[in-house]
Design a protein that fits this description.
Ribosomal Protein L22, Chain A, alpha+beta, 41% strand, 37% helix, three-stranded antiparallel beta sheet, 3 helices
C-alpha cells in the first residue's frame, strides 16, 4: 500500500528542489533521512520534513514498520509564481519571478 505526504507552496524553485529529491528516489526511507540530514542545502531540510511525514503517516495510519519503508515515488511540481518588478535603467522594468513548488513523497512497505 502506498502512503504519501505532500508539502505545498514551498518557497523554492522546482528546478532546485528536483536536484535534492533525485538523490533519495528509490532508497529506503531511513537511508534517505540520513542522506538529506547531511546535505548542506536549505532545501534538503524541507524535503526531509516531507519524508519524515510520510514515514509517520505510514506508521500511525497504516501500522507499517518504518525500517521496511522504501521511497517509491518522489516528484516536484511547480506551484504558484509571485511576480515582482525591478526598475532598470532608461525607464525599463525587469520582471522578477519568485517560484514555489509542491513536493510529494510516496513510500511503500517492501
Amino acid at each position: 500500500m502506498e502512503v504519501r505526504a505532500t508539502a505545498k507552496g514551498v518557497r523554492a524553485s522546482p528546478h532546485k528542489v528536483r536536484r535534492v529529491v533525485d538523490m533519495v528516489r528509490g532508497r529506503k526511507a531511513e537511508e534517505a533521512v540520513a542522506i538529506l540530514s547531511f546535505t548542506p542545502t536549505p532545501i534538503a531540510r524541507r524535503v526531509v520534513r516531507v519524508v519524515k511525514s510520510a514515514i509517520a503517516n505510514a506508521e500511525n495510519n497504516f501500522h507499517m514498520t518504518p525500517s521496511a519503508l522504501t521511497i517509491v515515488k518522489a516528484f516536484v511540481d511547480e506551484g504558484q509564481t509571485m511576480r515582482r518588478v525591478r526598475f532598470g535603467g532608461r525607464a525599463t522594468v525587469k520582471p522578477i519571478r519568485k517560484r514555489m513548488s509542491h513536493i510529494t513523497i510516496v513510500v511503500e512497505e517492501k
